[in-house]
Amino acid sequence: MELDPVLLAVLKGRLEQIADEMDATLFRSAFNPIIAEAHDASHGLYHAETGETLVQGKSGLPVFVGAMSFAVKLVIDKVRKEKLILRPGDVFIFNDPYEGGTHLSDFKLVRPFFFNGKIFCFLASVGHWHDVGGNVPGNYNPVATECYQEGMLIPPVLLYTEGVLNSDIISILQSNSRLPGSLYGDLNGQVSALELGDLRLNDLLSEYGENIVTSALVELNHSAAKLMASYISELRDGTYSAEDWLDNDGIVDEPLKIALDLIIKGDQMTLDFSRTSVACYGPVNISYSTCIASCYVALKHIFREVPANAGVLKPINFVIPSDSLLSVVRPKPVGGYTETI
Fold it and tell me: Tens digits of per-residue pLDDT, 131-185?
């Protein structure tokens, strides 16, 4: 369905407002200042089949913009693998940094949004909690050599089933935190943000209809991909290389190289990190999903006019070797990921 440009602009604004209002809800209700003041959180709408970013809030931490699509995909994969039947009111909770990105302090909540009896998209929230266990209060352990020394690791589990809270999950989470009250407050703030997102999105679909809103989302994604490709095509073909160094990983006093060969060919860009150091012992590793998210943020800083959705990455190819500093798997520590991103 081809939409009038004015209507598309209106729907774009309405959709972005939903994500922004979810951001504001958590910032105003969170118990810890890392979320309330530093805005170390994010919200968005994600594709029902792929988990790709549809709409993202503008006030949250930039790296989450790219990482949260991996978090939603992790839930989708779990649902398919275990043949789960999703229902309105279901909410998953987890903090797996290897599939869903970032580090253990960042807890994700993912909720399917239903309209006319079927899943239209997913709503998701992420926030940095004060303390999630581990050896060190606040969870940055500079001498950690495995994730178990950094905090509790929770895979995707159902916090709510058809709107009914599984209080046992909260008991487990609070029992593993030095600040259970702060954890409970932040969690409820995220739940409230998802509830508001559900309400606002239902209002929008009821007003404009499912087909029109779906068409708007498709067009916005297509526009982002087309615009990004056009910007890349204006660059000169060739390979552009750069490298930088981390002093050490906190365990072994040797520098760690982060190297990029950026290849432009027509309207396609390849980001090749093959020359980067292998995974290290200390906590400055990052996961594959976090690396992709970091590149997304860099691209958005350069190409600011491109809408913030999955279309940004359509003309981009990534080469990130397994067991690289930029693609570690459990149990390599990732608590100091901010230094690397």
Answer: 999 999 999 999 999 999 999 999 999 999 999 999 999 999 999 999 999 999 9
Report how far residue 179's alpha carbon sits from residue 130's, in angstroms, rounded to the nearest whole number: 7
The full DSSP string for 78-138 is: HHHHHT----TT-EEEE--TTTS-S-TTEEEEEEEEEETTEEEEEEEEEEE-S---SSSTT
With beta carbons less than 8 A apart as the criterion, state whether 208 and 290 touch.
no
DSSP string covering 28-58, please? HH-SSHHHHTT--EEEEEEETTT--EEEE-S
Q: Is the pLDDT of residue 12 over 80?
A: yes
Summarize pLDDT for 232-286 with one digit per residue, the tens. Answer: 999 999 999 999 999 999 999 999 999 999 999 999 999 999 999 999 999 999 9
pTM for the model stands at 0.96
The residues facing 241 across adjacent strands are: 261
d(CA 68, CA 269): 22
Report which of 45, 39, 206, 56 is spatially closest to residue 116, judged by C-alpha positions. Answer: 206
Nearest-angstrom CA–CA distance, 194 and 25 = 9
Please state, as a whole number, how many other Cβ atoms lie within 10 Å of the Cβ of residue 303.
15
Three-class SS of residue 189? helix
Residue 160: enclosing H or E segment and its boundaries? Answer: strand 157-161
**317 three-class SS:** strand
